[in-house]
C-alpha cells in the first residue's frame, strides 16, 4: 500500500503512528478532514492480520466519520483510531494513558470516543491525560448509555422514510422486521411498540428474542427467515452487508431503515434497491444519534438539547430523499452528496474569508 498515494487520492489530512514500548501500545490515528471542525471518531481495538490491514481500517473508518458528522449537521470533521491488539488480553491502564498523551499532543485536532473493543472505563483512562475524549463515565460528565439515543434517532429516521414511502410518517399498524435485538434495537422496539407498530424479531441470542417477544408482543422467526417475512419495513440492526445478492430479492419491505453500519454489501446493491423503488435510509445518516449525543458532551452535556438535535435526523433524511428524487439517484449517493456539499460550502466560505483578509492587508 502506497500510503501517500492513497491519502492524496481520498484527500486525507494526517496519519499518526503511536507506539509505547512499556505498555505495548501500537495505535494508528487517521484524520480525514477537519474542514467543519476537529475530527471526532472512536477508538477501535482489534486483532488485525497485518499492520497494513490496520492502516486501511483506520483510513476507511475516518472517512466514514467525516460523512457521518457532516450529514448529522455537526461542526466536526472525521477521524478514527485503531489499536492493534486483542481487547480481551492485551489491555492495560498504561496503554490507554499513553494513548491519551498522544491525543493531547494533537492539541484538539482529534477527539476520540468508545468503539468496538473499547469501553467507558478505557475512555476514563484516556481522560486522565486529555480532555479530548467523549463517552466517559457519567461521574466525569458523560451522557451515559448512548443506545436509547441512537434508537430514538433511528425511530425518527424510520418515520421520515415512512413519509417518503407512504405519504404519512405514522408507523401505527406498520409491520417492522427487526434483525438483531441488542441494546439499540431493543430501545427501538420500545418506541415502535408505543406507536402501535407490529414487530417481527430475530437474533442469534435466543434470550434477546424472548425478551422482545414478552415485552412487545413481537413475533419471533429464525435468523435466516427474517428476509422472507411480509413486512413494511426491514430494519437491519446487527450485522453489516445484509442487503446483498442472496437477500435482496427476498425482501418484501418497501423501506430499509435500521441501526446497523454498512448495511449495503456494495454500492451496486444500493443501485438495485433504488431501481426496485425501495426507500433506503442510508445507515450513517439514520444511526447518527450516538455521535450527535457524544458531540453534545463537548459543550457540557444537556440531554434535552441533545435529543432535540437527534430529532433533526428526520429532516436530514427528508433532504436525502428530496435529492434522490430530484436527481434520480440512489439515496446512498444522495447522502454522500449532501455531506460533501456541506463540507464544500464551509471550505469555500473559509477561502472567501482568507481572500477578503488578504485584500484588507494589501491595502494597508
Automatic annotation (TrEMBL):
Its EC number is 1.4.1.9. NAD(+) binds at residues 180-185. SUPFAM superfamilies: Aminoacid dehydrogenase-like, N-terminal domain (SSF53223), NAD(P)-binding Rossmann-fold domains (SSF51735). The keyword Nucleotide-binding applies. Residues 144-351 form the Glutamate/phenylalanine/leucine/valine/L-tryptophan dehydrogenase C-terminal domain. InterPro entries: Aminoacid_DH-like_N_sf, Glu/Leu/Phe/Val/Trp_DH, Glu/Leu/Phe/Val/Trp_DH_C, Glu/Leu/Phe/Val/Trp_DH_dimer, Glu/Leu/Phe/Val_DH_AS, Glu/Phe/Leu/Val/Trp_DH_bac/arc, NAD(P)-bd_dom_sf. GO terms for biological process: branched-chain amino acid catabolic process. It catalyses: L-leucine + NAD(+) + H2O = 4-methyl-2-oxopentanoate + NH4(+) + NADH + H(+). Pathway: Amino-acid degradation; L-leucine degradation; 4-methyl-2-oxopentanoate from L-leucine (dehydrogenase route): step 1/1. It comes from the Bacteria. Belongs to the Glu/Leu/Phe/Val dehydrogenases family. This is Leucine dehydrogenase. It comes from Oceanobacillus picturae.
Amino acid at each position: 500500500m502506497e500510503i501517500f498515494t492513497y491519502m492524496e487520492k481520498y484527500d486525507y489530512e494526517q496519519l499518526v503512528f503511536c507506539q509505547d514500548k512499556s505498555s505495548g501500545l501500537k495505535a494508528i490515528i487517521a484524520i480525514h478532514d477537519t474542514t467543519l471542525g476537529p475530527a471526532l471518531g472512536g477508538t477501535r481495538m482489534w486483532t488485525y492480520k497485518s499492520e497494513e490491514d490496520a492502516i486501511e481500517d483506520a483510513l476507511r473508518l475516518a472517512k466514514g466519520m467525516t460523512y457521518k458528522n457532516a450529514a448529522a449537521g455537526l461542526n466536526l470533521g472525521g477521524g478514527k483510531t485503531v489499536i492493534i491488539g486483542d481487547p480481551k488480553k492485551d489491555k492495560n491502564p498504561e496503554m490507554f494513558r499513553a494513548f491519551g498523551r498522544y491525543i493531547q499532543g494533537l492539541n484538539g485536532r482529534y477527539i476520540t470516543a468508545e468503539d468496538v473493543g473499547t469501553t467507558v472505563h478505557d475512555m476514563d483512562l484516556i481522560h486522565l491525560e486529555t480532555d479530548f475524549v467523549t463517552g466517559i463515565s457519567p461521574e466525569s460528565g458523560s451522557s451515559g448509555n448512548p443506545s436509547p439515543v441512537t434508537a430514538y434517532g433511528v425511530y425518527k429516521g424510520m418515520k421520515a422514510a415512512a413519509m417518503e414511502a407512504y405519504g404519512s410518517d405514522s408507523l401505527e399498524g406498520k409491520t417492522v422486521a427487526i434483525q438483531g435485538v441488542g441494546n439499540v434495537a431493543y430501545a427501538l422496539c420500545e418506541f415502535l411498540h408505543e406507536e402501535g407498530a407490529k414487530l417481527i424479531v430475530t437474533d442469534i441470542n435466543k434470550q434477546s428474542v424472548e425478551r422482545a417477544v414478552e415485552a412487545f408482543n413481537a413475533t419471533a422467526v429464525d435468523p435466516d427467515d427474517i428476509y422472507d417475512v411480509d413486512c413494511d419495513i426491514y430494519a437491519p440492526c446487527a450485522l453489516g452487508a445484509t442487503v446483498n445478492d442472496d437477500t435482496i430479492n427476498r425482501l418484501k419491505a418497501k423501506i430499509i431503515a435500521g441501526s446497523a453500519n454498512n448495511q449495503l454489501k456494495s454500492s451496486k446493491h444500493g443501485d438495485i434497491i433504488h431501481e426496485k423503488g425501495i426507500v433506503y435510509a442510508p445507515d450513517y445518516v439514520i444511526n447518527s444519534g450516538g455521535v450527535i449525543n457524544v458531540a453534545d458532551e463537548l459543550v457540557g452535556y444537556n440531554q434535552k438539547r441533545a435529543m432535540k438535535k437527534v430529532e433533526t435526523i428526520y429532516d436530514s433524511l427528508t433532504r436525502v430523499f428530496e435529492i434522490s428524487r430530484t436527481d434520480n439517484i440512489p439515496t446512498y449517493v444522495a447522502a454522500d452528496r449532501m455531506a460533501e456539499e456541506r463540507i464544500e460550502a464551509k471550505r469555500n466560505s473559509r477561502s472567501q474569508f482568507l481572500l477578503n483578509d488578504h485584500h484588507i492587508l494589501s491595502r494597508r
